[in-house]
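Action item from last meeting closed. Structure (484 res):
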């Protein structure tokens, strides 16, 4: 069952139930009020008859000139008075009963009004009963009465068929009114549910289109109700899915390019190694100079492959490794990197200037050293012999800032956003000659992200490159924790 059907049927059932309940209560209240009025009318009529009997018996006693009538005289006088009472459409039967419920007078033979009398002898009682004919209803009223020394009960039967028919017609009109109002309400409710749920149907259609792959689908989210909020959430979801799909497509493309570049980068040194190894292997005489040159080429290409495989392995495992960061003094890490680079820099004829404040950073020490080593090594490859590299670290607010600067060739502005991609090299021939594979800055970017930092590259062609690294400052551990 669809949602609109559930809402329609549930609301319709509640509406019919509430309408029926209210109508029943109003009908019952009206019915009770009418019957109460009818009972009061009958009792008033009964009291009038009782007063008439008392007055007639007293008049008969005065005529006889006695102090009190005998019981038999009272019975005869009461019977004569009631016999003269005319019956009409309302009062249809009348009877006077002695204490043994024997009729002193009855307008009916047999006196059916005696059947089923309930209640105490001192109470005025009444009952409603159906008649023999269709639609006939009678109201029996019985009340105690004292006539001189005679204790008796005055019982009358009133025809209330008209009132019963009126109540029946009222009930039928109420049922028809409830039925008509329910049908009208059902039509209005159906139109209202359809109108209010139109945006939900639009949401359903759009969700189906998104599920079919149309991630650029957007819904109308104007308004301030819950459906507008749902539309905004679905738009945000579709946007997030679209961004994720585009990201996955870019990852797939990057991975494809990565594998192609890897195969190309490994093919070149392997070709050189195999070619010069074959030259050494062939059974012919080689002078010492050629042999040394061939061996040097093989060694350089093997070193290049080793560097390529090492950086590639580190780049691949970095994203999946569970890195644990701990506070470390940046000054010590910088000094260790400077010591390890000193032989290489001296061989390249470069000097390293370093200035480092006493700041602490949460880091994986070896990864952080690899980060600084790669940045300085890239600066070395871009610098001319006799040049200079600068490495500085300081605190700025709640961040630690590291600056790595070279004064070499620089990078064109159009290339800056690409140099952190794996295997991307601005000058491929010069980079390969220097032993590069285009993985250093890609690895640096991954290490910076692992340490929750940022990397900004500024460069001017012919003047050099400045790399700015920013990391959250850390608090030095307590002395006891440091020794532990």
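Sequence:
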């Amino acid at each position: 069952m669809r949602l609109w059907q559930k809402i329609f049927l549930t609301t319709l059932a509640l509406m019919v139930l509430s309408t029926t309940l209210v109508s029943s209560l109003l009908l019952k209240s009206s019915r009770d009020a009418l019957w109460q009025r009818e009972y009061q009318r009958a009792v008033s009529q009964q009291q009038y008859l009782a007063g008439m009997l008392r007055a007639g018996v007293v008049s008969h006693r005065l005529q006889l000139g006695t102090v009190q009538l005998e019981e038999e005289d009272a019975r005869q006088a009461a019977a004569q008075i009631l016999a003269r009472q005319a019956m009409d459409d309302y009062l249809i039967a009348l009877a006077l009963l002695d204490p043994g419920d024997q009729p002193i007078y009855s307008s009916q033979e047999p006196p059916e009004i005696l059947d089923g009398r309930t209640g105490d002898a001192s109470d005025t009682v009444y009952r409603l009963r159906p008649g023999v004919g269709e639609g006939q209803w009678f109201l029996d009223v019985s009340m105690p009465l004292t006539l001189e020394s005679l204790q008796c009960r005055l019982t009358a039967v009133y025809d209330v068929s008209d009132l019963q028919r009126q109540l029946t017609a009222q009930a039928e009109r109420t049922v028809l009114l409830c039925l008509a109002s329910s049908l009208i309400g059902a039509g209005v409710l159906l139109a209202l549910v359809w109108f209010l749920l139109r945006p939900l149907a639009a949401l359903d259609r759009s969700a189906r289109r998104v599920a079919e792959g149309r991630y650029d689908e957007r819904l109308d989210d104007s308004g301030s109700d819950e459906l507008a909020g749902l539309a905004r959430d679905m738009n945000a979801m579709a946007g997030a899915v679209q961004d994720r799909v585009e990201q996955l497509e870019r990852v797939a493309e990057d991975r494809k390019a990565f594998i192609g570049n890897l195969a190309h980068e490994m093919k070149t040194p392997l070709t050189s190694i195999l070619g010069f190894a074959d030259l050494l292997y062939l059974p012919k005489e080689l002078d010492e100079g050629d042999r040394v040159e061939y061996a040097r080429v093989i060694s350089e290409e093997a070193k290049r492959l080793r560097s390529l495989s090492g950086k590639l392995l580190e780049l691949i495992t970095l994203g999946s490794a569970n890195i644990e960061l701990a506070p470390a003094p940046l000054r010590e890490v910088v000094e260790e990197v400077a010591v390890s680079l000193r032989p290489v820099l001296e061989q390249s004829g470069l000097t390293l200037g370093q200035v480092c404040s006493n700041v602490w950073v949460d880091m994986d020490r070896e990864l952080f050293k690899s980060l600084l080593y790669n940045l300085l090594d890239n600066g070395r490859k871009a610098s001319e012999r006799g040049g200079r590299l600068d490495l500085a670290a300081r605190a700025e607010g709640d961040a630690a800032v590291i600056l790595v600067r070279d004064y070499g060739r620089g990078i064109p502005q159009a290339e800056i956003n690409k140099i952190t991609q794996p295997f991307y090299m601005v000058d491929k021939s010069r980079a390969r000659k220097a032993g590069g594979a285009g993985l250093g800055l890609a690895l640096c970017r991954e290490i910076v992200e692992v340490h929750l930092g940022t990397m900004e590259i500024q460069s001017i062609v012919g003047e050099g490159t400045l790399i700015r690294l920013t990391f959250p400052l850390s608090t030095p551990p307590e002395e006891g924790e440091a020794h532990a």
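Note appended to the action item: Confidence is low (pLDDT under 50) at residues 114-120, 425-438.
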